[in-house]
Design brief:
mainly alpha
Length: 283
């Protein structure tokens, strides 16, 4: 019996060694990358699991440790690709791994690996519905790296109701309303914010969203006036006051958030900024 117990232990070990030897031989054929020792290669998933005794969560932990001990500040582009592959693998092995999504969001998007970061964050969002940060970082990347604020807003609005904390739900909904301001289609942005206002349970938050929708409508009116000015004068306006003076718009709208409106370098009206950074009881 003791012999058979040893045999059942040795068989998986031998198989793992054979697979590792085969994969190592295959890797010699690949183009070598001058990478740091900690991040030299990302092994195939099945090899990682076999080397961890069949425990995918242990394999995820080992992969995450490799990413944490790597000096990312001095890495080359090829090494970032290896790091991205390793972190995507960890997110498959254990999508709820907290250290993995933190390091992925902090490093990968800023070094050209946005898609990999999004894969990690999307999996973390689905595996950790109680966690505010994966959906926030995912939406942040959509806005600032993918230039897709409409999708970012939709993602936050879908994930917010799953958070157990009411303040965190409100925070995601607030960012969903704020980031949609960056949309190219402002009429669609108005529709999104108005829809959010109709569904808002809190009266003060509903009023805040209605204010944001009106602010967007004011910007649309300014842009329509600037477009009319361009068609009639053959040049863009130089100031917003010029639109009022030449009667393209009755007056410059008042910004309820105190920042106001301005013209960009091409004469298109835009928001000057936003002094109220987050939702508060005042707005």
């Amino acid at each position: 019996m003791r012999f058979f117990r040893r045999l059942t232990f040795l068989i998986p070990l031998c198989l793992g060694a054979m697979v590792f030897a085969y994969s190592s031989t295959s890797l010699w054929k690949e183009k070598r990358v001058d990478a740091s020792p900690e991040i030299a290669v990302a092994l195939p998933l099945f090899v990682q699991v076999l080397m961890s005794g069949g425990d995918r969560f242990l394999a995820a932990n080992l992969g995450s440790v490799r990413t944490l001990v790597t000096e990312s500040a001095k890495m080359q582009p090829e090494e970032y690709r290896i790091l991205a592959k390793l972190q995507v693998d960890v997110s498959w092995l254990n999508p709820a791994h907290e250290d993995n999504y933190y390091t992925a969001s902090a490093i990968l998007p800023w070094n050209g690996e946005v898609d990999a970061a999004q894969t990690v964050l999307r999996r973390a969002s689905l595996a950790r519905p109680f966690d505010l940060y994966p959906p926030f970082y995912y939406a942040f990347n959509l806005v600032y790296f993918k230039n897709d604020p409409i999708e970012a807003s939709a993602w936050l609005r879908a994930r917010a109701p799953m958070l157990p904390n009411a303040d965190e739900r409100l925070m995601l909904e607030n960012f969903a309303a704020r980031w949609v301001d960056r949309a190219k289609d402002l009429k669609l942005a108005v529709a999104v914010v108005e829809s959010m206002a109709k569904q808002a349970m809190r009266k003060d938050f509903r009023e805040y969203l209605e204010t944001r929708a009106q602010r967007l409508r004011d910007l649309i009116a300014l842009r329509e006036a600037a477009t009319s000015f361009l068609k009639k004068r053959g040049r863009p306006p130089q100031t917003l006051e010029q639109l009022v003076k030449e009667r393209f718009i009755p007056q410059i709208p008042s910004d309820p958030f105190g920042a106001g409106f301005k013209l960009d370098s091409e004469g298109t009206p835009i928001f000057a900024g936003e002094r109220v950074d987050v939702y508060s009881n005042k707005y």
